[in-house]
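Supplementary Methods S3. Complex input for the iron/sulfur cluster-bound model.
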Amino acid sequence: MYPALLSPLVLPHITLPNRTIMGSMHTNLEEIPGGFERAAVYYAERAKGKVGLIITGGISPCPEGCVSARSAMLTNQEEVRQHAWITDAVHREGGRICMQILHTGRYGYHPNIVAPSAIQAPINVFTPKEMEEETILKTILAFGNCAALAKEAGYDGVEIMGSEGYLINQFIASRTNRRTDDWGGSYENRIRFPLAIVRKVRELCGNAFLVIFRLSLLDLVEEGSSWPEIVQLAKELEKASVDIINTGIGWHEARIPTIATSVPRKAFTYITGTLKKELSIPVIAANRINSPEIAESILAAKEADLVSMARPFLADPQFVQKAMENKAAEINTCIACNQACLDHTFQLKISSCMVNPRACHETELHYLPASKPRKIAVAGGGPAGMAFAHIAAMRGHQVTLYEATGQLGGQFNLAKVIPGKEEYAETIRYYSTVMEKYHVQVQLNTKATPEILLSKQFDEVVTACGIHPRKPDIPGIDHALVHSYQDVLSGKITPGKRVAIIGSGGIGFDVASFLSADDTAVDYTHFAQFWGIDTDFLHRGGLTGRSALKPKRTIYLLQRKGGKPGASLGKTTGWIHKSALLSKGVHMWAGVH
Ligand code: SF4
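Predicted complex, serialized as structure tokens:
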């Protein structure tokens, strides 16, 4: 079914059974008491699901490189023992796992950060200390020692994080490297740091150890690398005996979305494909790949040798197993919302997944067979009702779900019509499929009335009836020109050319996005033009600049409280919604009565 995706990749000292990589994503598990044991179960479940290779979240080689003051490191024997929990658990399931070594440089969220130059990142409150030559040499050694300890802990290899604007990337780009010594100035000098790290890792770990380098192929910031420079570094990395190059897209401070749901699927794989032609070692494609069909198409088009997915393995640990069994419709698809994974990660909370609450809670949330199966009615066929019905039926209960309308999905049916949120349809598809698999009786166009519920003699009734929007108590609210967001998004009414939206939370922003959308298809060309991405490999950093669009409507987004509109939106996605609407001429007013 997926011949390219499911074919093995034979490397000199390891064979990967298929072309899937669970990409690095930090979960904050390693930072809590007992967290390594929990992380071990989390990773082992993905190994059991047959992923080809796992790459852990970033682990720092030294205190200055930590994400926060309490972040995980690998610098001593005690930490080796903790990491061995993870490697043992993964290997017991027949999996393979590499540890990512991440030095955050100026992105670290603590006062002891260091960087090639003392330039504060626009997304950090701390300013880094410029690294002296002695610190640079110590840091290179720290990377090597960290990799050697990873090998001792049982990892099959390491991924050296050289993209996303972290320390190594900060050395590579003149944006953040203003040094005048041998580690700055010319490009040859600026890439000495990553190459020295790779050589040190090889020297201390030997050849029978996988070394992956995550290389930034598109910085998406001013004064980023040019394409010829990126190719030059990739070739040097290959010469320095890196086994595989992974793709990094966009620095964290870039103001262009790279993984959010509004980014078209497999948006950036053409860049990986262009690099692949220059190298003889395998390359990994990444970003917005969330189904076996898409992964297969990338490999079939020879745009990559392997495909990395991080969030899709949070959403469904059995992604590969289901693809192997030709059950892709049963895959719980990552909808790229970022709400429970990256938004949590960056708030230093434990990550999870909006569509799979077991993610990172595998030791706490067990779906065991019911000891006493019951007859259960579920009132409401939205996401909550469907999720409950699926799990209850899977556990052996006899479940009937009543939905008053003619379709399943509830408010996800409204969400999926918002431009860039089309992925929400996948959650409806997933639950519809698995409810059928576990024989949930679905009664559409049927309200769960007391008469029905009593006549069927259910043991339990679960209400999942959704919400009614609050109707603000303001003069004119019943005027013929005033409509609910549901009427607009469901297509019941089409607003005119001048629209005021009362409320600027998530739904207000979604409605503004819906009403300001043009009719152009949301493909990569359109996306790249809108956000100003250079698709011709001509401009440094991959930027061409954005131009303002002619608004389709005049839209006012009104917020009652003061402060910046959109402040309550998701940490990693709110800026995208705001930036997109501002460039479409949407007016945002706060403190409005
Ligand atoms: Fe994907 Fe959203 Fe789950 Fe994150 S929370 S893994 S983005 S579905």
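Residues 311, 314-315, 334-341, 353-355 surround iron/sulfur cluster (CB under 6 Å). The longest helix spans residues 133-152.
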